[in-house]
Amino acid sequence: MEKGTTLGKLIVFSAPSGAGKSTIANRILAEVPNLYFSVSATTRKMRPGEQEGHEYFFLSKEEFEQKIAEKRFIEYEQFFGNYYGTLKDKTDERLEKGENLLFDLDVKGAVNLKKLYGEHAVLIFIKPPSLEALKERLLKRSSDSIAEIENRLERAAFELSFANQFDFEIVNDELETAIQSIKAFILKSIQQPSK
Ligand SMILES: Nc1nc2c(ncn2[C@@H]2O[C@H](COP(=O)(O)OP(=O)(O)O)[C@@H](O)[C@H]2O)c(=O)[nH]1
Ligand SMILES: Nc1ncnc2c1ncn2[C@@H]1O[C@H](COP(=O)(O)OP(=O)(O)O)[C@@H](O)[C@H]1O
């Protein structure tokens, strides 16, 4: 990356599945100027209501592995039997133009981006009020099978153990309150110039 340019920030959301990441991200993207969603690639099945290139770029396992071989990912992880990864395409170019990007990543992906981008990456951890609340939300979303919900709940404890490596931590209990406090933190982070 060129020295002296004002690089955009990488705003990274991590949370156990069902904690409310996507709900909060959609509101924040609609309300914060010059902040754009970084669309990841995945091999998981498209959920009802999702669109190609909107929530994810949906790839076959072979296509994803081909891109790994071509070193087209900044980072990628494998869980729930699927690949998830951040494509290099355009990311640095957009940051160099001063665009701020919002990422929805698992905890390992978040920590990896911090290693790669240092102070330009701002990590936000969203917690559910409790594991019971998390289960209720996953059931309410009703896009996952019972087996998928169990997988996600098992992973939640692992994800929660990373919370102390994040720059900002919030419990998503009352949705509006959580959105306003995350929004205030992002606006403050975006205004701090990167060196
Ligand atoms: N490391 C990494 N994790 C990702 C990426 N994209 C999505 N994830 C994570 O993959 C996990 C599963 O995502 P998803 O299947 O959409 O389920 P949801 O979080 O329950 O809506 C979540 O923890 C996401 O944050 C990525 O590009 N890299
Ligand atoms: N503060 C909240 N209180 C109650 N339900 C919520 C809250 N935030 C999100 N939800 C609901 O919980 C479910 C999971 O949220 P979602 O944004 O899909 O989570 P994630 O992206 O973290 O997996 C959705 O049905 C959503 O409407």
Provide a compact summary of the structure.
The protein is of the alpha/beta class. It has helices at residues 21-31, 61-69, 91-96, 107-117, 131-141, 146-160, 175-191; strands at 10-14, 35-37, 40-42, 56-58, 73-79, 82-87, 100-104, 121-127, 168-171. Helices cover 41% and strands 22% of the residues.
Layout of secondary structure:
Layout: E1 10-14, H1 21-31, E2 35-37, E3 40-42, E4 56-58, H2 61-69, E5 73-79, E6 82-87, H3 91-96, E7 100-104, H4 107-117, E8 121-127, H5 131-141, H6 146-160, E9 168-171, H7 175-191
Parallel strand pairs: 1-7, 1-8, 2-7, 3-4, 8-9
Antiparallel strand pairs: 3-6, 5-6
Helix pairs in contact: 1-7, 5-6
Bound molecules: guanosine-5'-diphosphate and adenosine-5'-diphosphate.
What do you see in this structure?
The protein has 195 residues and is α/β, with parallel strands linked by helices. The chain has one domain (10-191): Rossmann fold (3-Layer(aba) Sandwich). It has helices at 21-31, 61-69, 91-96, 107-117, 131-141, 146-160, 175-191, and strands spanning 10-14, 35-37, 40-42, 56-58, 73-79, 82-87, 100-104, 121-127, 168-171. Strand 5 (73-79) and strand 6 form a beta hairpin. Helix 5 (131-141) runs antiparallel to helix 6. The longest helix has 17 residues, at 175-191. The radius of gyration is 16 Å and the shape is globular. The structure holds guanosine-5'-diphosphate and adenosine-5'-diphosphate. Guanosine-5'-diphosphate is lined by residues 17-18, 22, 40, 44, 75, 77, 84-86, 104-106, 108-109, 152. ATP binds at residues 15-22.
